[in-house]
Amino acid sequence: MAVVLVTGASTGLGLSTANELADAGHDVVLHARNPGRLAGEKVSDQVTEFVYADLSDRTETARLAEQIDGFGRLDAVIHNAGILDGPAVFAVNIVAPYLLTALLTPPKRTIVLSSSMHRSGSPDLDTLDLADAGVRRRPYDDSKLYVTALAMALARLRPDAMAHAVDPGWVPTRMGGRSAPDSLIEGHRTQTWLATAEPSAIEPRTGGYWFHRTPRRPHPAAVDPRFQEALLERLAAHTGVRLAAGGR
């Protein structure tokens, strides 16, 4: 059985992912911003490990990484946490996944939540201010382009592990809204599969961009090593933490 961290798992896709993994017998570390976020939610009785941190805060994110390392090397991390708008879009959607990736003992598998909207993201990094998403025209789209590029960079830099990005579709969550047309069930099953399936059942084994267990082509910048390296440099300068190719 796998040990899996799911971030942003207090509701919606994250909670569905955590519950399905736990009910299947996997050991789930469920992350939420604070305990109050779980009030009234149906969390599986099989989830026994809970961690809390505000991922918009770099100090809390770094402390979270230290706490999680206490569980030992994880089999998989699912970077599910995300926000749609506001000045903290970059902090939560790309800086936090980067920091956790750079600080944690490298897991065997990394899965990030992308979006079809990443294709509208701008690969222009010249005006990027990671401290304030408000200066970008489409910050959410940009953030999803960046986190997709992060996953593709990990696939390149850490070939012995596995890294993937998932488009869950437009699903009826707190973020997506009740009228969203896609399936919440299908929206989380690709993540659980990528986190636990036999590597031989996943093709490509690493570096995939997935929609409902079907590989798709991401934005060209996401798979461009030059863009990836430029983005990693920006993230390293912003956080003061450099991502090591082979892990810490």
Could you characterize what this model shows?
With 248 residues, the protein is an alpha/beta fold. It contains six helices and eight strands. The chain has helices spanning 12-23, 58-69, 89-103, 139-157, 184-196, 225-239; strands spanning 3-6, 27-32, 49-52, 76-79, 109-113, 162-167, 208-211, 214-216. Strands 3-2-1-4-5-6-7-8 form an eight-stranded mixed sheet, sandwiched between helices. α1 crosses α5 and α4 (139-157) crosses α6. It is globular.
Average pLDDT value? 93
The gyration radius over C-alpha positions equals 16 Å
Number of strands: 8
> How would you describe the shape?
globular
How much strand content do the residues show?
A: 5-15%
Largest sheet composition: 8 strands, mixed
Total DSSP helices = 6
Structural class: alpha/beta
Poorly predicted regions are none
What topology, given as strand order, has the largest sheet?
Answer: 3-2-1-4-5-6-7-8
The helix/strand series, from N terminus to C terminus, equals EHEEHEHEHEHEEH
Please give the alpha-carbon distance between the first and last residues: 25 Å
Share of helix among residues? Answer: 25-40%
